[in-house]
Amino acid sequence: MEPTSYRRVLFLLMASLLLLLLSIRTWIRLPSLGSAKIELDCSEYGSWCTFKNRIQSRSGAFIQRTKPKQQQKADHESEVAKHPLDPLTLREIQRVQSIMQKTSIFNQGKFALHSVVLEEPLKEEVLSWKAGSNLPTRKASVIAWADGHAYKLIVDLVLGQIVENQISHENGYPAMTMEDMTSAVQVPLKSKEFVEIVEKRKVNMSDLACGPISSGWFGAGEEGLRLIKVMCFSSAGTANYFMRPIEGLVVLVDMDAKKVLKIIDDGKDIPLPKAEGTDYRLSAQKYPLIPPLNPISIEQPQGPSFKIDGHQVKWGSWEFHVKPDPRAGMIISVATVKDPETGKMRRVLYKGFTSELFVPYMDTSEGWYFKTYLDAGEYGIGLTAMSLDPLNDCPRNAYYMDGLFATADGTPYVRSNMVCIFERYAGEIAWRHTECPITDMQIREVRPKVTLVVRMAASVGNYDYIVDWEFQTDGLIRAKVGLSGILMIKGTKYENVDQISSTDELHGTLLAENIIGVSHDHYITFYLDMDIDGKDNSFVQVEMAKKTVKNGPTPRKSFWKAEKHIAQTEKDAQIKLSLYQPAEFHVINPSRKTNIGNPVGYKLVPGATAASLLDHDDPPQLRAAFTNNQIWVTPYNRSEEWAGGQYVYQSKGDDTLAVWSDRDRPIENKDIVIWYTLGFHHLPCQEDYPIMPTVSSSFDLKPTNFFDRNPIMRTTPCYEKDLPTCAASS
Ligand SMILES: *[C@@H]1O[C@H](CO)[C@@H](O)[C@H](O)[C@H]1NC(C)=O
Ligand SMILES: *[C@@H]1O[C@H](CO)[C@@H](O)[C@H](O)[C@H]1NC(C)=O
After folding, report:
1. N or C, where is the chain less crowded by C-beta within 10 Å?
2. What Å distances lie between residue 663 and 522, 667, 688, 707, CA to CA?
């Protein structure tokens, strides 16, 4: 049977089943209906409280399920900044564009804007600003490329002038623009040699799908030009062209001259993997589909508990600012939490974001060695963050925030629904205790956990990164990264593991006929400008030191003891994690104490993570030296935000966090920034084919002697009567 007619039959079958259900409705008890406990009436909540279209009123008439209240579309044309950290508005980006066009170095139209973002006001200005008062002068920070040079400009939007103009003398180039990427993949098509190779590989030019692969930096011979390597696939028979690489074909392209410099073709005997079974779209699936679970959603008949004003979020005990950013994806700023004892808002985090990613592949062959991406500084985690899919990327009642970015010529564009904010109730427990029968006290006290999540998802080519910032009412902040999307695939002649000789280096796992999932790592380095009750903080490594007892009064021979080491300089805080040298990592404010005298603090709690195994002098690791330690602490410096350096594309590693940290500056009782790297080793497995189920890892920022006691003890439990229940009105 043809798939389409098959589907039609299935549809008819389902429709008749539905009719049957309706005609015998009196015997069928739908879930959660008819129970004596139901106290809410549907009419109270109107159309909200229905269970798909299956609920009927007493009269037998359908209660039409209408859509829940939709968030109003933001009107970017009339938008004005309300907070000193609000991103540039559409009007402000337009103003930058017109100022650039009037400036002599750029007015021949021969410039490309690689980044147009808010030049954040000084920290003091932001912190002293009061809601309702005038904003500090709005300025834009612009990275422009003109005449073979990178310029860093500060544009004063009030004066309408460029007030700072710095030519870069650093190694490395700005992140690619979308235009760089889309034009680079067109370049090989002009080459006769390339077209011939593609034809020889039996790929129809109309099926060709090519991707821009940042070429990294591997020493002399690759300098002075903005280079990119273009790799191609066949999309014949599948939307998942990543599974059909034209293996070994690499085209080195000069991004500015838009010229092919070199073509490598060393995969001639490697067949094109099959298309069958690789398409992951719903429309391409074989029927019948896996039966769905019963419909599920978190209902909030009174709406969510957060309030969002522009980019300011208020929820539970938290207040913070969220800003989409082309490079970092999103930035969380001035996160403050309410102290339940005093009612005062207390600062925890001045600024937090994903500063850089490092994704090295473990294949050293000609077609693969350069695949060592620094995704934030080369591609932009925000530029590659696409619109989220309501109900699937984020649940009902999520609030969506748009990103506003600029094209290479400075024209603003809207990335709609780029960030979502929602409350998560996943059946977790905030705290609990039951008394066991020994005491006969019959105590059972439990509080449910509801959290607030701020989410975005970047699709950097094949890979998808889901970044969550999750806030808890007890003061904990969890940063989580989920990996999904499609593997980078290497074509191979092998179709079965039995064919592979033990001496053959596969560099990955055979996932299907002719397909190798190449081993690789992901490192995500977070910038965490902690401000525990103020700017000046110290970093304390609290070591669980093993102690032995010789001839003690009891038979015990060993124990551990917490030993505190306050980091004096940066090198004291270059930390490699180890299970057998356990430690906690506290950020304290030495001049603020709890009621009983502990310095107030937060601790950084690493989760599952990974460390790079590349040699420190391997070129990719030099450029990504910020992953040499899992934790670093630097003194706050406005120019040190990007762990891989300001200009990461083809960088040589002379402007990384590792270089800054080796200056060994004092960090005790100073405004400090903590850097944490979340890592994954990824040895692909068959379940990752043809698209990967999400794997994730996280770390926490947890209050540690910050509050005087459990800050959520006085919260109330859930009662059935307070909860929405979907029920028929009858
Ligand atoms: C190549 O693509 C063209 C245009 O879609 C189509 O007409 C032609 O039949 C294709 N050739 C092969 C060999 O698939
Ligand atoms: C701030 O950072 C920049 C860039 O790394 C550096 O040149 C400058 O010396 C730093 N300033 C201080 C005080 O460390």
Report:
1. N
2. 27, 11, 42, 35
Which of the following CATH numbers is that of domain 90-167: 3.10.450.40, 3.30.365.10, 3.40.50.720, 3.90.226.10?
3.10.450.40
Residues with CB under 6 A from ligand 1: 204, 206
Sketch the domain layout of the chain as residue ranges.
Answer: 90-167, 178-284, 307-384+415-721
Strand partners, 211: 231
- The best mutation among 198, 202, 206 to test binding of ligand 1, ranked by most ligand atoms within 8 Å of the C-beta, falls on 206
pLDDT single digits (tens) 629-666: 999 999 999 999 999 999 999 999 999 999 999 999 99
Q: Is residue 14 scored above 70 in pLDDT?
A: no
Choosing from 350, 373, 379, 463, the catalytic residue is 463
CA neighbours closer than 13 Å in the CB half-sphere of residue 44: 13
- This model's pTM is above 0.85: yes
Residue 723: what pLDDT? 82
Which atom belonging to ligand 1 lies closest to the Cα atom of 206?
Answer: 2
> How many angstroms separate the alpha carbon of residue 240 from the centre of ligand 1?
19
Tell me which architecture the domain covering 307-384+415-721 has in CATH.
Answer: Distorted Sandwich (2.70)
CA of 637 to the centre of ligand 2 (A): 6
The pLDDT tens digits of the residues spanning 142-190 come to 999 998 899 999 999 999 999 999 999 888 999 999 999 999 999 999 9
Q: Which atom of ligand 2 is nearest to the CA of 637?
A: 1
Residue 147 among the catalytic residues:
no
pLDDT digits (tens, 9 = 90+) for 15-48: 443 333 333 222 222 222 223 332 333 333 333 3
Active site residue 413: no
Burial class of residue 227 (count of CB atoms within 10 Å of its CB; 0-12, 13-18, 19+): buried
Assign a CATH topology to domain 178-284. Answer: Nuclear Transport Factor 2; Chain: A, (3.10.450)
